[in-house]
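Notes to self after the Tuesday call (sharing in case useful).
The group wants a holo model before anyone commits to mutagenesis around the pocket. I volunteered. Ligand is protoporphyrin IX containing FE. Logging inputs and output together so the record is complete.
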Amino acid sequence: MDSTTPRPEILDTAFPWPRPPIDPPPAYDWLRENEPIHQVATAGGGKAWLITRYDDVRAILSDPRVSSDSQNPGFPRFGSMPEPEDQRLFLRMDAPQHTIFRDLLAKNFTLSAMKRMRPAIQELVDDTIDTMLANPDRKADFVESLALPIPSTVLSWLLGVRAEDRAFFNSAADRALAATDPTNPAALDIAMTAMHELRAYIRSIAEERAALDDPGDDIMGQLVGAARAGEITMMDVENSGFLLIIAGHDTTTNMTALGTYTLLQHRNQWDEMRNNPALVRNAVEELLRYLTVVHLVVLRVATEDIEIGGVTIEAGDSIIPLNLAANRDDAHFPGADQLDIHRKARDHFAFGHGVHQCIGQALARLELQVIFETLTRRVPTLALDADSADLPFKRWSGINGLFSMPVTW
Ligand code: HEM
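Result:
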């Protein structure tokens, strides 16, 4: 894109704009080039500053004058109401409340905790692939057979979901994904019901644990222990369990499906990974950067006036740091629109940046590494069984993905 490219008309329509299946909306490139800090009207009826350059996104996400508090009237909204105060998730809180939850949960996601989980995740991935390959027709819906069950099963282990409830938990977590399918008018109701069921389920585990002398050492047990010690409330226990399900499930599922789709579209890079598994770790970072599936979730509000890039963002203004636009900034990632599994991309913003940077990133990386290493090794002939043009991409969702993906091998 050069400086003579005309101003896209979509800039005058309410944000967010639909995402093409894989790449960012083209207007992001124009903004990054011409008006890197630009105020737009939003679907919620307000205005928000879009930030599109890598360096500016990093500066905003590390700035203490920027808040994640969803109760602040300036917090960006795309038409939704703020959640009731007692259902607020720590994703949408500032210090000191936010810090209490991070400190409580961080130990579950350390590299050493992940190292201990690797063998179990490898076994789960192998079993899931065995089940998929058992179909004599050599066909499957990749989302249903692989991308959905792996993250939800891993989450159920971490939280401490009873083995006999796992099928319910996985199904409710999967139905909650339906929310963003505009072609299915029943989807929103299905998803809302599933979310209520999940909350009620998490509450029931919390209450059950609270009645025991020892609430256990999985995440639900730790949270109930913290409530018993008076550090948090039982409502906080429910909200935190719920956030972990919502944040840890859809994200990894979509990244698995879209990552596989993208590699199948770049067959030479899939083959390279198969021949050289040492590349997988790097490839996962590049796929995270290139796809930035969580692209409309990082939202902020200014608590003081901020001068940035020749613009004043005033206290109370909504800010949308576009991690997707930043991850495609040529000034930081030369040739950013090309997928290159050899690129050193680990400083991408697919997991955000700053104090709210994804708490589950080590787990997401581990799951994705095991999945891609095992798939390229065990199912090297995996191929799409549909035209790309017919695939149901989640074009309107804040988390990009695929509702289904027919494959063969
Ligand atoms: C936060 C992306 C997987 C739990 C975030 C944020 C992003 C993100 C961009 C930052 C939001 C912000 O700054 O406002 C992703 C992606 C994933 C993934 C792309 C998978 C590929 C997971 C997993 C878990 C998880 C597996 C847990 C099991 C969370 C939580 C937060 C968060 C609890 C809130 C952190 C805070 O506010 O301090 N994630 N995530 N995520 N993520 Fe993830």
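Two things stood out.
The pocket of protoporphyrin IX containing FE is lined by residues 68, 90-91, 102, 155, 243-244, 247-248, 251-252, 255, 293-294, 297-298, 350-352, 356, 358-360, 363-364 (CB under 6 Å).
The mean pLDDT is 93.
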